[in-house]
Amino acid sequence: MTFDTFAALGCTEPFLSALARRGFTTPTPVQAESFQPGLEGRDLLVQSRTGSGKTLAFGLPLMHRLSEDKRPQAIILTPTRELAQQVGEELMSVMPRLEIALLVGGLGYAPQLKALKYGARVVVGTPGRVQDHLDRGTLDLSGVAMVVLDECDEMLNMGFLEDVEKILSGVPPGPQTFLFSATLPAPIASLAKRFLKNPHRINHSQVEGTSQHADIEHTPCLVADHLHTKALVNFLLADDPSSALIFTKMKVTTETVAQSLRDAGLSADCLHGDLSQQSRNRIMGLFKEGKLRYLVATDVAARGIDVEAMPLVVHMGIPTQMESYIHRSGRTGRAGAKGASLALVNFKESRILLAWSRRGGLKLDWRALPTQAEIRETRARKLAERIAGVEAPQFLETAGRLLAERDAPSLVAALLSMVVGTAQDGYDIPDSPKQEYSAEKRPFKPRPGEKAGWTPGQKPPFRREDRPARPWVDKPKKAFEPAKKRWDAAPAAPKKRGQD
User: Fold this and answer.
1) Which of 5, 154, 186, 378 is most exposed by smallest CB count within 10 Å?
2) Residue in 79, 28, 80 with CA at minimum distance from that of residue 58
3) Mean pLDDT of 91-110
4) How confident is the model at residue 65 (pLDDT cuts 50, 70, 90)?
5) Dihedral sign of CA atoms 205, 208, 210, 213 in order
6) Position 157 confidence tier, pLDDT thresholds 50, 70, 90
7) CATH architecture of 6-203
C-alpha cells in the first residue's frame, strides 16, 4: 500500500502543518514503511542509505509517542557530533517546543546539565558523552522507553559499539528500539538480535543503491597521487560549482588542500576531528549559508553534513569500502536534484572503482584534466554570457571618449584585465606518460661525454681481445692446489708427565 501524503500515513497536527511549512508533503519510501509499525510500538530494523529521509522515519513515530512527562523518554545515539546536531535540528523543525538535551563532546557541560535538569524529553548524543553523563550520575535512563541507533555501522567502524551496548544495558527492559544502518555486518546483526524483539525489517539499501544514484553523474579522473591537489584546483576553476564537499583520507591533508584552494583564490576551509566544537560549528554555519563555497573534510567529520542542492562531491582518492563511496556520493543528487561525484584516482584505484561500478550498477563517465587554455576559455565564455544582456546607457559617453583615445580591442583587453584581475588559470599538469610497446629496440644514444655505443642486436664495433692490457687484473692464474688440512697429518704422540 502506498501513501501519497503524510495525512494519509496517519500523521496528525501540529506535525502536518510543520511538515507543510518545510515543503514536505509526500513521505519517502522509508518514512512510509516505518511510520505505522513505529507508531504501534514495534521495533524497527532498517537498512537505508544516507539522504533517504531516515531522521523523520524514526522521528515522526517517536514524537507521536512522547508523553508530557518531564524526563528523558527517548535516547538517540549517533556516531558524530554533527549528525547529532542535525538530528536535533530536524526534530525541532517539526516540533519546535520539543525539549532536547544535546549530549556531545566538544561542548561545555553547563547547557547539557541545564537541559537535563529542566526535563528534556529526548536525549540526542554521541556514545562517549552519553556514557560520561551516566558515569557522572547526571543522566537518568529509568524513564526511557524508546531507543534509536542511527548509522549503527558507522558507530561500529569508529569503535563505539562497546559503549552502545553498555548504554543499552542501562535502559529499562523492553524499550522500543529503532536500529538504522546502511549495512548489517556480523557485530551489528548480533547487536540487533540481542536488543531488538521481533523487529519489523525494512531494506531499501539495494533499491536505493541504484535509484538514489540515478541523479548523480559519476565522473572519475585518472591522475597521479602527488597531482591530486593541482587537479582539484583545475576542476574547480573550470567547472566553477556553487559549492562542493571534498573528501580526503587524513586530517592533515584537509588543511593542506584547503590552503591550496585559498592560494588559488577559492573560498575554502577544512573540517576534521581535531578542531574545537566552536570552530566546527562556525565553519559548518558558513558552509550551509553559502558564505563558504568549498569544504574539505574527512569521512568521519563529514557525517551529518546535509546541505540542500549540493552540486558536487569530490573524492581525493576512493575509500576502502564501496559503501563509504556510496555514502560520500549520496551527499549530492538529493530530492531529485542533479549532482556530480568526481573521483581523483590513481591507476590501482581506477581498477577498484571499475569493479564497484559493475557491482553497484554505477555508470562511470571518465574525464580528462582541464588545461589552462580550457580554464581561460570557460572563464571568457561565462563572462560573455554575463554581459550579453547588460545595458548601461549611463556609461555610453565615457565609452565614446575612451574609444576615441584607444582602439577597441586593446581597450576591451585592458578592461577585462581589470575585471578578471589576477584570477589564476590553474596549473600546467603534464599528461601521464604513455608506455611505448615496440618490437624494435631503440638505438643507443650516448650522453654528453660518453663513448658511442651500438644498437642492441648488432655486432659490437670492437672485440674483447682488442682492449688494452690490464696487468693488474690480467695476471696468469696458477693451478689450483687444495690446502693440506691439519687433520690429514698423523697426530703426534702425547707426552708423558715428566718428559721434557
Assistant:
1) 186
2) 28
3) 91
4) very high
5) negative
6) confident
7) 3-Layer(aba) Sandwich (3.40)
Distance between CA atoms of residues 491 and 176, nearest Å:
96
Phi, psi torsion values for 301, nearest 5 degrees? -65, -25
Q: Is 440 left (phi over 0), alpha (psi -120 to 50) or beta?
A: beta
Residue of 220, 304, 296, 224 whose CA lies nearest to 253:
296
CB-based contact 277:345 (threshold 8 Å): no
Amino acid at 63: M
SS3 state at 44: strand
Q: To the nearest 5 percent, what fractions of the chain are helix, strand and coil?
A: 40, 15, 45
Domain ranges of the chain: 6-203, 211-360
Fold of 211-360: Rossmann fold (3.40.50)
pLDDT value of residue 2 = 59
Q: Which of 58-72, 432-446, 480-494 has the lowest mean pLDDT?
A: 432-446
Predicted TM-score (pTM) of the model is 0.66
Q: Which three cell numbers stand for residue 118?
A: 529542566
- Give the range among 61-70, 145-154, 421-430 with minimum mean pLDDT: 421-430
> Same CATH topology for 6-203 and 211-360?
yes
